[in-house]
Amino acid sequence: MILPFFVIIPLGAAFLISLFGKKIKNFGDLLANLGTLSLLVFSLYSISKVFTNKILVYKVGGWMPPLGISMVLDGLSSFMLVTVNLVSFLVTIYSISYMEKYTDKYRFYTLFMLMLTGMNGIIITGDLFNLFVFLEIASIASYALVAFGTEAEELEASFKYAVMGSVASSFVLLGIALLYSYTSTLNMADISQVLSGRPAGMMVNFVAVLFLAGFGLKAALVPFHAWLPDAHPAAPAPISAMLSGVLIKVLGVYAIMRIFFNLIGINTVILAMLMFLGAVSMLMGVILALAQWDFKRLLAYHSISQIGYVILGIGLGTPLGILGGLFHLFNHSIFKSLLFLNSGAVDYSLGTRDLQKMGGLREKMPVTANTSLIASMSIAGIPPFNGFFSKLIIIFACIQANRFGYAFCAIAASILTLASFMKVQKYAFFGKLNPKWQNIKEVPWPMKLSMIALGVICVISALLIMPLFKPFLQSAANVLLLGNGYKDMVFGALK
Amino acid sequence: MKNKKEVGMTLIVKTITRLTVGLILLYGIYIVLHGHVSPGGGFAGGVIIALSFIHLMLAFGKEAALKKLSQAASSILESLGALMFLSIALLGFLGGYFFFNFFLHKGTPFALFSAGIIPLCNIAISLKVGAGLFAIFAVLILFKSR
Prior knowledge:
The complex is a heterodimer of chains A (about 500) and B (about 150).
Chain A: H1 5-20, H2 27-53, E1 56-59, E2 70-73, H3 75-98, H4 105-124, H5 128-146, H6 152-183, H7 188-196, H8 202-219, H9 228-234, H10 237-264, H11 268-290, H12 295-316, H13 319-350, H14 361-364, H15 366-380, H16 386-400, H17 404-429, H18 445-460, H19 470-482, H20 485-494
Antiparallel strand pairs in A: 1-2
Chain B: H1 11-33, H2 42-60, H3 62-68, H4 71-91, H5 118-145
Helix pairs in contact in B: 1-2, 2-3, 2-5, 4-5
């Protein structure tokens, strides 16, 4: 019963804001924050639902699933919903003040809620074509949001992103069309059932390659990453945080996990490919990040690198590897959105993103400086913070699976990440205050509030691996470990 | 006539447009309302409805068309279409399910009023698509003239 509301709330909020946002002042702020808050509450409630029922299947319109559209809530969906809605709630609080400097704030909220509709829809749907529709909703809203500033830089980045994103969507659509012609069904569980009754052939492999290219581009894995370093810095900071924090994970990583593990069925070739792509992204991303002087561009390259960790962990295919990958996915969405919000706060006060022009901001902006220190230590993997534990689990999983080369790559990338964030801290927040910034002020309270909340979550989400909270992660990992058993779960819940 | 600044296309085009534009609009409405029993539907009908306004704009210039349907009005209609679609879907909860087709007496082949919520959904979609397409076209025109 709660399942369709993950789509209804943001969709309704989006169009109500576009209808009344211009006339009533602060209507957009209020409705967007209420909407994301209620989504967060619903997604937290879904955890307990998953614990009691294991899996919930909703029949849209009352039609039975192989014909009708279904919505499926299992451990993995619930885990992703919590991640997405937590970040989006804190980001909407942040945008109350940050988006003041743009005109047409209500249009921003409309597009934001549409993007959220797309992401929640992808997570909750049990139908392959529905997944494509929601993928397009989220992507097209994000193309518009990247261009929200409508300066030359933003428009160029958005155009590049739109062209590459459309190519990726066409790959996905072609893959879905071929899979539909091969199996005569679009329901995910039904596709999995039909495929398990057929001998392995070239068709499924070809579809797998199309999906890997399509969703890989959305996830910005290395051979397909060229759009990300342009698109993420160009967007307004809250959107950079959403794009980097959750969009690439939902559109890319979640879709890859769901389709390869639960639909097509995983095999060693796909796993080897995922691990290789993950390791390459990890190293390439961080090496490219080292030379950047634009704060947000540096963070964007780190997103590529950290997505590499997630894909490497999941590509190991072992229980520990998948657990580590999912844990890192959650952690990355927290600390990377925090870092992007920090860069937005610096941009808000100073009006520049160039690290060389900053310096000594710690005196003037203590909240931004301290939260960014927490986030930097998390992403670099310093012990008490969440990033350390997830990276440690991934490295342990590599060693356990006898993949010493990949373990070495993960350690090397972590050290380079540390180096790169030491540079950020030294040039931006430590050192002597640049006399030019004598009169700057700390950012307004909504921005401080959301940065502090994310900083606190950075520390306490390390506890997710403790036995008390571990079932939350474990139930998500179990869905992937179940593999083809997904179809039996879904059809079992329907009876 | 001569001293007034001429907008739009020639007299021939304007006369033909005056004759055809109503028919195009009617045809669009026909496609929408018969969407569930014949080819077409909300999207196709909405596009045809938008084309009738775009036709006006091409023949008579942008002021004539924007006087009939301003940009703000089309943006409001677009949001209303989306909200109408969502509320039809929400009304399905009366029957217990999201998007539930809650009308009785449905499913007679070839009868116009036998499809429950589907014609209503088609109308909502045509509002959304028609107003949206017209708004996109109007925005492109306005930006070009700057």
